[in-house]
Amino acid sequence: MDGVRTRKRHRLSWDVGPPETQAVTDGRVPTAAPPSSPPLREDDREGHYVYDLGENLTPRYKILSKMGEGTFGRVLECWDREKCEPVAIKVVRSIHKYRYAAMIEIDVLNHIATNERGRSCCVQIQHWFDYRNHICIVFEKLGPSLFDLLKRNKYCPFPVDLVRDFGRQLLESVAYIHDLRLVHTDLKPENILLVTSEYVKVPSQKSNLQGGTRFRCLPKSNAIKLIDFGSTAFENQSRSSIVSTRHYRAPEIILGLGWDYPCDLWSIGCILVEFCTGGALFQTHENLEHLAMMERVLGPLPPRMAQKANPSAAKYFTRGAELNWPEGAASRESIRAVGKLGRLKDLVGRNAECWGGSFTDLLRGLLKFEPAERLTAEEALDHAFFQQSGPA
Length: 392
Fold this sequence. Notes:
Layout: E1 56-57, E2 61-69, E3 73-80, E4 85-92, H1 96-112, H2 116-121, E5 125-131, E6 134-140, H3 146-152, H4 160-179, E7 182-183, E8 192-194, E9 199-207, E10 213-219, E11 224-226, E12 233-234, H5 251-254, H6 262-277, H7 287-298, H8 303-307, H9 311-314, H10 332-339, H11 344-349, H12 357-366, H13 377-381
Antiparallel strand pairs: 1-2, 2-3, 3-4, 4-6, 5-6, 7-12, 8-11, 9-10
């Protein structure tokens, strides 16, 4: 897929020298870097910035709270004294590879924000600076993630109209970044944020054990934005062989067959199933079990993919290119976990009668084993599921 797309490798705007030599205060790479600001205190052992709530991150930003933490560093909620508004600041670990990745992310974010379409569907970078050897990226402050929304509702499925709205916006975001020749590579509910934090309580379809009414929280506004472009790849740049968070990782990645735009669409298929069931489709942490779960839900892997698997993945198959399951299972618990899954139509249908028809057909198009056969984001947006309202 997309083999006809040819374009010179995107030139990074900061390709004027290694990022560790750059100390900036205004988000631009200077021709001669000013001296780095001296450390306020030592970083922790992993290179994370150590801070106290209420202190300043440069005179402009006051640290209010920690919003999250990951391999890259920490996200802090700060008060922007200049604009008099809250912002989210990604403070990257003071380690070369993470600083380098942060500079690529900044370039991607600036590339995405080239027109109104990008600003409306993806998180917006406002500014960036290098502070005490930490790359700091300032973003607009958004609401909670869709994973947080699921968790808040104790992993109850979203209503069908909400899934349709979220799915449409997610596909529009991905269609936009694919048009820019970018592959996100880490789509998951944690990386899809509501624009605001306001909720309304509505009665749940299920009653509690005492016969009373149960409520669930739904967003006042369904507007969402895509975040975390730290793993995003430009077309034709050198790439890591393993990308994506495990539960949303496409089969071609596991098999070492290379990856491209279709890996994002596989992730979207997994995300939409999670929205309609409340739980991750492939809850596993091991490759063979993961492939067995895929076969259980979607049918057998195409022999061509098994035959072309790289040497490290070939061990998952017999000489006849069939998955070595359950013989190769690591434990009986693993066999049981796979056995609990059903076919895609049944998984979707068992949660609500309306989750059938066109929705299941859309999922089949997104979860094709062969990347070239998968729907593109634009094709998925034209699917019948998004042309209707009410039951799927």
